[in-house]
Amino acid sequence: MSDIDERRGVPEDWDRSGLAPWTYLNDELAELEKDTLFRRHWQLACHVSNLPERGSYITFDIVGERAIVMRGEDGEIRAFHNLCRHRGSRVLDKKRGVCKKVMICPFHGWGYNLDGTLRSPTAPESLPKLDKHEHGLKPIELDIWMGFVFLRFLPGDQPKISELLSRHEKEVAPYGAQDMVPVYGGYWRQEMKVNWKAVRDVDNEGYHVPMAHPGLHDLYGKNYYDEPIINGTNRSFGELTESPGHLWSVRHYKKILPDFPNLSGPNKRAWLYIGIFPNTVISFYPESAAFYQEYPLASGRTLQRGATYRYAEESREMRLSRYLAERIDKLTTEEDTQLIEWTCEAMESSAFDGIILSDREYGVRAYHDKLRDLLPVMSLPEAPAAGTVADTNAKMAEERAVAAE
Fold first, then answer.
1. CA distances in angstroms from 132 to 81, 87, 101, 124, 142, listed in the order given
2. What is the structure's pLDDT at 340?
3. What is the pLDDT of residue 220?
4. 227-242 burial, b if ≥16 CB within 10 A, otherwise e?
5. What is the pLDDT of residue 3?
6. What pLDDT is stored for residue 8 in this prediction?
7. Where would I find the H helices in 248-315?
8. DSSP string of 21-65?
C-alpha cells in the first residue's frame, strides 16, 4: 500500500489528541451518552432470520430500554416497548420464543395481540373502557437493512437506517445477507469492566493489527485499511494476502475458502466491515456475515453482544471456512479485550497525560470529534463539578447554537 493510500482521508495538519480521561470515568456523562447516543441512534436488534415464523420474537434490553421484536400474524416485523400498559411489567421475559396468538403479561394477565394492540385486560369490569390501540404496547421505530433489524427508541437527527447505509448497498448486496440464517440461534454476550468508548477506540484503527493481532496480520497484512466516518458510517477492508499463512487457522482458511460466484473482485477473498455510529459493526466475509456492538451499563461497565449468520445452503468447504474464521475472530477478541483493559487502567494512573495519535489512527480522532459534536461537554479537559455535567453540556450546546446563527 502506498503512502498516499495509508493517508486515506487524513488531513495534513490535525490535532492528534484524544478525549480527556475523565470522559471514560464519569457516571454523569455515561447517563448523557445513554440518552443522546444510544436511545436516539439506530441500534441493531436482530436479523430477520431470528424471527422465522409468525409469533416468533426476541427481546432486546439496552440502556434502560426494553424491547420486543416480533413477527406478526400478517408476517410483518414490528417492535414494541416491553412494558405492560397496566403496571409496567415485562410482557415477555424470555430472550426469544414464539407466541401463537397472544402475549400475556405475567403480573396480572393482561393480553396483547401480536400486532401490539390490547386484546383483553383481566377483569375488564373493574377498569374504565380501554381503547385497544391507545392502550396497546407502545411501538418503537424500526427499519431493516440487508436483513438486519434496527430500532430507534427516541427520535433522532439520522434518517432511516436503510437511507444511512445506502452508500454501501452496491458492495454489500451480493453477499445476500438478507437470506442468511443464524449459526447458533441466539447471541453471544460478554461483560467487560471498561468504558464502552475504549472498545470503539481499539476498533476504530488498524495501526495495532501487526503487533497485537498476529492472526489478522497473517490473514491480510498491509492490505487492511480503515476509512473515516461519513454521515455516521465507515468502511474497513482487508483483502487476504497471497502468502499461505503461518498460523494454523489462517493457513487452512486461505486454503479451504471456496470460490463464491455471487462475489466479484477482491471481495471474493476479503473481510469487509461496515461501522455504524455510535456502537455497531457488521462484518461481511465470503462465507458468512456477523455483527457486534457494545453499550454502557455504567461508566466502567460495558456489555458486548453479537451474532453470526451463514448461507442457508452451506457446503462442507463453506462450513469449514466459517469455523476457521470464527477461530481467528475469537482470538482477536481476546487480544482486543486485554488491550482495552490496559488502556482504561492507564487513565486512572498519575502518569497518564493523554495520547498521541498516528496518521493510521485518524479514525479514532474522527470518532472523538463526532462525540464532541453531539456532547460538547466532552471537549473539556477536566470534568465539570459533580452534579453539573448535564447542565454544563446543555449550556455549551446552547452557546454553540447561538454562535452558529
1. 16, 16, 16, 12, 21
2. 96
3. 96
4. ebbeebbbbbbbbbbe
5. 36
6. 67
7. 248-256
8. GGGGT-HHHHHHHIIIIIISS-EEEEEGGGS-STTEEEEEEETTE
Q: What is the mean pLDDT of the chain?
A: 95
Query: 462465507: which residue's cell?
Result: 287
Enter the C-alpha cell of residue 338. Answer: 486485554
Burial class (CB in 10 A: 0-12, 13-18, 19+), 11: exposed
| Residue 257: all three cell numbers together | 475458502
CA distance 317 to 322: 9
Burial 202-222 (b: 16+ CB within 10 A, else e): bbbbbbbbeeebbbbbbbbbe
- Going through 90-229 in order, the beta strands assigned E by DSSP cover 96-98, 102-104, 111-113, 118-120, 141-145, 148-152, 181-182, 188-192, 224-226
Give the amino acid at 313. E
Which domains does the chain carry? 3-40+179-369 (3.90.380.10), 43-152 (2.102.10.10)
Q: How many Å apart are CA 374 and CA 319, to the nearest integer?
A: 43
Percent of the chain with pLDDT over 90: 92
Summarised one tens digit per residue, pLDDT across range 302-314 is: 999 999 999 999 9
- pLDDT of res. 5: 47
Shortest CA distance to 306 belongs to which of 215, 183, 198, 145? 183
Condensed to tens digits (0 to 9), the pLDDT of residues 341-368 reads 999 999 999 999 899 999 999 999 999 9
Instruction: Kindly report the pTM of this predicted structure.
Output: 0.95
In whole angstroms, what is the distance from residue 283 CA to residue 272 CA?
Answer: 6
Burial letters 258-288, b for 16+ CB under 10 A, else e = eebeebeeebbbbbbbbbbbbbbbbbbbbbb
Phi-psi domain of 63 (left: phi exceeds 0; alpha: psi -120 through 50; beta: other): left
Element (H, E) at 330: helix 316-346
Q: Look at residue 1 and tell me whether its pLDDT is greater than 60.
A: no
What pLDDT sits at residue 4?
34
CA proximity to 14, closest of 357, 304, 290, 288: 357
